[in-house]
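Dear colleague,

Thank you for sharing your sequence with our group. We've completed the structure prediction you requested, and as agreed, I am returning the results in plain text so they can be pasted directly into your records. Please verify that the sequence below matches your submission; if there's any discrepancy, let me know and we will rerun it promptly.
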Amino acid sequence: MNTQWNRLLALILVLALGLTMTALAQEAPAPTEPPAQSEEAAEEASADDADTTDDEAPADDADAPDEAATQNTLPTTHTPLTPAAQSFTFVKPKRAAIVKYYTAIRLEGIEPTIYMFVDKEGATQFRVYGHAPDAKRGFYEAKVTAIVSDAAGGWDFTLDVPGTKPIKDARVFALYKGKNLPKEDVPAGLRKGNGTGMYYFFNVFGKRESVAWASPDGSEYAWYLPNGSKPLAGSPQLNPDAFAARMHKEGDKYYRIPKELNAGYAKEVIITTSDGKTAQVMTDKPVIDTDNLKTR
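Please find the predicted structure tokens below.
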């Protein structure tokens, strides 16, 4: 009797537990779907996913460096002598062979000395001394051209010697007529010299330097190199700022002349190249090194 009662009680408990589990299963909420994304949000998510990939997308062609532009920025090699100039034999002339109206100049990047003068038409003429292949020695016509240098504020000069025989210059030099300036217009540091339009100043070495205020046509005046008490025929224009910098200022000390400057020192002149460029160059003398001058 007890055994049957226990079996009945166990069956009742199993049925009760089964009913409870069924009820719980029916009350459990159905799994929810994720909220729908807008198209804009979906695009942003895709973009974020792309940023997390290990390999970046290839750069757009527009962002890639332009090969042609890169090539154009490469430094170019400048050749200062044309083939004709390279085949020319440059020789240092004797003093007696140099025409007194030539001005010897030095061009940056070109080793040989070049001689120049201004002709009666106002054009700058260039000469070099030596000989062309199988030709006589003498002064030859030269051409000087210039392009803007990679170096700031400079020129790349090119020398050509097209002539095949020497040339002799006579009665071709520009003639200048001097003019006296009103006293109030005379630049500070200049004093009146002998000759119309002639002025002088004392430089930092205490030496006297003369300059000429003159014109080839009576209308356009500039400063020129002197020839005694008159302007030098064929002279290039002087840079007034350059010779003003050499002037001795009142109250300043004088300097000793270095040995290398005993025979003269470079002066800055203005030339016009064969292709019409205006350039400031130095005459063919040692340049004054103002930083290393010693006081007297």
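Summary note from our side: The radius of gyration is 45 Å.

Kind regards,
the structure core
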